[in-house]
Amino acid sequence: MEAYHYPQFNTVVYTAKFKDIKNAEALRSRIVKAASLDGADGEAERDAVNFAFIEAKLITSSLHLETAIYQALLSESQGSLRTKTIHSEIIWALNPTNNISEAIKLFGVSGRTTDLILVHAATSDTCDVQQKMHNIVDGRLVPMSTIPDSTNWANVKKHYKLNGELALMEIASDSDRERTVIDNIVISTVAMKSVMT
Amino acid sequence: MPSSSLSSPSPTQRLLGSAQLIYQGAEAKVYKVYLRDPELQQIAKHADHDTCSMAEDAAPVLLKYRFNKRYRHPSLDASLTRQRVAGEARALMRCLRSGVNVPGIRMVDAAGGVLGLEWVDGKSVRVLLPGGSEVMVAQDSDATDDVGPDRCEDAALAEFGVERDDLLSMIGVEIAKMHIADIIHGDLTTSNMMLRRGGKDLVLIDFGLAYHSSLVEDKAVDLYVLERAFASTHPDAEPLFNSVLASYAKRLGKHWSAIKKRLDDVRLRGRKRSMVG
Amino acid sequence: MALLRDSRNSRLTSPKKPFLALGLEGSANKLGAGVMKHNEDGSTTVLANVRHTYITPPGEGFLPRDTAQHHREWAIKVIKDAVSQAGISMHDLDCICYTKGPGMGAPLQSVALVARTLAIMFNKPLVAVNHCVGHIEMGREITGAQNPVVLYVSGGNTQVIAYSRQCYRIFGETLDIAVGNCLDRFARVINLSNAPSPGYNIEQEAKNGKRLVPLPYTTKGMDVSLSGILTSVEAYTADERFRPTGTPYSPEDDVITPADLCYSLQETVFAMLVEITERAMAHIGSTEVLIVGGVGCNERLQEMMGIMAQERGGRVFATDERFCIDNGIMIAHAGLLSYRTGYNTPLEKSTCTQRFRTDEVRVTWRL
């Protein structure tokens, strides 16, 4: 698990990547149910799943994720969140279009998820974040730097509409170079989403 | 503009407060900054990985802050600032997707007047060509690298392992790629190009006045602006600029003749302009 | 009026005897005659600065033929007044200076003809002067600005200029119409008077403007484009919210007045000019700016430029209407500067040209 410190937002963001996820479908339905539960149980359940759950195969680098986190923190500080929470906003920021349910479907956890990233933003140091992650995720914790290893590059190209772009056509033969270029475009797309149109 | 509240500065203003000012231009201040605490805190040990070698520190980001202009009407100023941040980001995006070498985008706060870009480690083309290091040395962040007025440009070029002709031809190619993508830079000067250290990338920078257009006229004017910048910055600029044009022409192929014709028109019209209109 | 000359940027040494020149200007609708004296101590004295302006009715511009006619009619009187005010005789002159260009062909020619005639009559050398260089040199002389970036704004010209290696280089300029032309043409659209000048009346009208309407803001590098803004501001006069002067409306009505349009036009156009000037200043590392040309007497432009210059730790230099607006004295002054470096114009070469770029002149008198 990593912690990113953002002094300008007085915020610490915890991130962790898990692979070999075994309870993806259960996790997904638990998140959906938590939203509609009433009373103290609902509170406890929402606290248990108080993370952004992100499909790791569509993330190209930790900078890709960090860029979405940054733009979400910025929107929150300006009172201009497009979604209900900072965590859903991160998922929204990752998606190249403005459609919220599409964002969650693509970039959130699904029944097929095998590689998952958890993000938790907090205003103070929280010591039990990692334990909370382990409580809900059945998988193996790996460093964030392994993100590119599980990236589904074809899907990234598809969702970010990179097929047919001149930038990729010129370097199609060099896959390392191609990944660097894709990563840069994808990061830039996330960074500029607020002024895209 | 940034943070109208009296209570506390906005996060972007706080970020600027922590940033290192590297250049103050007419329109914007440029900073080097880290969007987060650069040292990553690795909390957990991973069973099958060496944590130390896996830790990724944050890369620096170039922040371009369009401060407000007091001479301008406040509402005109605010809308221009927003438009220009957004316009610059969109032009860069289009370039990135079209394979033009430009800095990647890292952060956008249009209302705050701030654009965060990939940090490009390299040198301004201006100081790599003859005469370019004479003026504006005081404003160049790399000024201390320059040994003296005597052929320091060629020494700097040698440090990059690039011949002057290669450099000129790289300039032509990048501008051609940009024009093929229908992006007009709007402020082409040798100060707005960088040679990236290590690699052999020529990076076009400062898209503050860029816009989208497929018109031959706009492309010709873009070249004309560069021609004039060459003439006013580098003595005996004509052969230098001709080398740039030659590689531009080659890359553009069949579209070159129309642009060449229009460039000739624009040069002529430039002379007509001194008439009483 | 005596001015102290600062020789820090000059190649000229103080003259052994005073120099006297008559300057004749008529490139547009102002006919000017001025007598300039360069003194032994390096100072200069404006002995006379007489001007007569051809003023057309509201809604009409000045045509070359009529303007030339005006200059021919007034030449003798204006020159006589200048010489008598100066208290000199034509025989005392060292040279006769005239505007070679740029400007309108017919008016230029009629004044050049007067200059040639006087040169033959009194056996004086002729000195052909570039109009823009005249503005720049007079501006430097009056304000004491040493090496400023120059914004030259008039009815026919919009240029950002800086001196370098014996040349006034144009760093930026208009890509289509001149700023004065833009303001004058809009003044005609809303029927403002041409007296004393349409630009002056736009400036007064703008003071009552309350609303900033959106107009295109087009800067390209150090250049500007102004034709789009003229079209756009004209279009507002056909907007249903537009109320021509004299039309009644209540304060809560959503209206656009001629004053609002003058205000918006000035705020937008001047912001563009200040922006390109600042860009040139940043480019060459200068903190001084000098505004010359007819639009240069606009106080709002001077104010905006002053704010910009102050923020850069510098200052703005400007002159009043006596020297900003086309005049003969600037031609006499710039002519004398080149005459003193040994330059004069043989009779057979004393032509005019409508096109004469500022950067074509070899500035021999500066370091």
TrEMBL record, chain A:
Kinase recorded as keyword: no
Highest taxon listed in the record's lineage: Eukaryota
SUPFAM superfamilies documented for this protein: PF0523-like
GO biological process: tRNA threonylcarbamoyladenosine modification
Location, primary (coarse class): nucleus
Location of the protein in the cell: Nucleus
Pfam families: CGI-121 (PF08617)
Keyword tRNA processing set for record: yes
Primary role: Component of the EKC/KEOPS complex that is required for the formation of a threonylcarbamoyl group on adenosine at position 37 (t(6)A37) in tRNAs that read codons beginning with adenine. The complex is probably involved in the transfer of the threonylcarbamoyl moiety of threonylcarbamoyl-AMP (TC-AMP) to the N6 group of A37. CGI121 acts as an allosteric effector that regulates the t(6)A activity of the complex. The EKC/KEOPS complex also promotes both telomere uncapping and telomere elongation. The complex is required for efficient recruitment of transcriptional coactivators.
Name of this protein: EKC/KEOPS complex subunit CGI121
UniProtKB/TrEMBL annotation, chain B:
Gene Ontology molecular function: ATP binding; protein serine/threonine kinase activity
InterPro entries: Bud32, Kinase-like_dom_sf, Prot_kinase_dom, Tyr_kinase_AS
Catalytic activity from the UniProt record: L-seryl-[protein] + ATP = O-phospho-L-seryl-[protein] + ADP + H(+); L-threonyl-[protein] + ATP = O-phospho-L-threonyl-[protein] + ADP + H(+)
Record's keyword annotation contains Transferase: yes
EC assignment: 2.7.11.1
Gene Ontology cellular component terms for the protein in this record: cytosol; EKC/KEOPS complex; nucleus
Class of this enzyme: transferase
Record GO biological process: tRNA processing; tRNA threonylcarbamoyladenosine metabolic process
Domain Protein kinase: 16-277
Keyword terms, alphabetized: ATP-binding, Kinase, Nucleotide-binding, Serine/threonine-protein kinase, Transferase, tRNA processing
NCBIfam families xref list: arch_bud32
Family: Belongs to the protein kinase superfamily. BUD32 family.
UniProt-recorded name of the protein: non-specific serine/threonine protein kinase
From TrEMBL, chain C:
Listed cofactors: a divalent metal cation
Main localisation: cytoplasm
UniProt-listed GO biological process terms: tRNA threonylcarbamoyladenosine modification
SUPFAM superfamilies referenced in this protein's UniProt entry, alphabetically: Actin-like ATPase domain
RNA-binding found in the keyword field: no
EC numbers on record: 2.3.1.234
Enzyme class: transferase
Cofactor note: Binds 1 divalent metal cation per subunit.
Top-level taxonomic group: Eukaryota
Binding residue positions for a divalent metal cation: H131, H135, Y152, D326
Signal peptide, first to last residue: none
Subcellular localization, as worded in the UniProt entry: Cytoplasm; Nucleus
Binding site for substrate: Y152, V153, S154, G155, G156, D184, G199, E203, N298
One of the record's GO molecular function terms: metal ion binding
Pfam families recorded: TsaD (PF00814)
Entry's Gene Ontology cellular component terms: cytoplasm; EKC/KEOPS complex; nucleus
InterPro entries in UniProt: ATPase_NBD, Gcp-like_dom, KAE1/TsaD, Kae1_archaea_euk, Peptidase_M22_CS
Entry annotated with the keyword Transmembrane: no
Family label: Belongs to the KAE1 / TsaD family.
This protein's name: N(6)-L-threonylcarbamoyladenine synthase
